Amino acid sequence: MTTVKPKAVAVYCAATFGKQPAYRSAATSLGTAIAKAKLSLVYGGGTYGLMGLVSDAVLEGGCSVIGVIPRSISISGSEGTPKADSYATTSKRPPLKEKRSAFSSLFSNVFRTGPPGAKPRIAEPDFKAPAVQDGVPRMERIIVNSMTERKSEMAKRVDGFFGLPGGFGTIDEIVDVITWTQRNLYSKPIFLINVLSYYEPLRQIIRNGIEENFIPEINEDYVIFIDGPEAHSEHQAFDWGAAALSAFDAWEEPLF
């Protein structure tokens, strides 16, 4: 039996930094580990917050980044500009911000956007951007018509999903891929980077659903929590990326 080597992973996360430095450290750690594993990143296309940190780290590691952006967000720039939160207003971006300008000229559209409401020109389903072009990490930008298309486009291009802390959009994307897995649309691993126990409430919701017979007990294994050290004080220095990619490498498709 031939094993197909993974080529790309999706990362769902916030376009803001959050309050705690551990969130930022985890984002950079995950991006660095993705590049070290020679995987491409498929993500929401934002250039700020945790999104920006993950993509910067992947590019710095010499691998490709594919951003999938709904047309409305692309026009408004709402995931590519600083937000008025604690770190966006008080902290500077890491030095990679300057390096991003060298990459931005390579940030090209895979889809023709056309007039508002027009259907995108779909690339080949098995398209994978080369990790490096002319010695420089490559970025691709895909414009789609809706959030629903964004989620579908990201999911079909990857071999696994990672969730860092984030808000409503991040949680929505994670719950969607869990649901799609339950409906047998995909059989790909889902990992939640549980920095500072951020996703503990979601784990409890899943367990409550099982206890009350709303979720089959076997389906608890759809989501793999990367918990890190027991002491939260160690979370900022912990190598979340190495732990997440190790779990990814060890994952085997369950026999549901």
Automatic annotation (TrEMBL):
<dbReference type="GO" id="GO:0005829">
    <property type="term" value="C:cytosol"/>
</dbReference>
<dbReference type="GO" id="GO:0009691">
    <property type="term" value="P:cytokinin biosynthetic process"/>
</dbReference>
<feature type="region of interest" description="Disordered">
    <location>
        <begin position="77"/>
        <end position="97"/>
    </location>
</feature>
<dbReference type="InterPro" id="IPR031100">
    <property type="entry name" value="LOG_fam"/>
</dbReference>
<protein>
    <recommendedName>
        <fullName>Cytokinin riboside 5'-monophosphate phosphoribohydrolase</fullName>
    </recommendedName>
</protein>
<dbReference type="GO" id="GO:0016799">
    <property type="term" value="F:hydrolase activity, hydrolyzing N-glycosyl compounds"/>
</dbReference>
<dbReference type="Pfam" id="PF03641">
    <property type="entry name" value="Lysine_decarbox"/>
</dbReference>
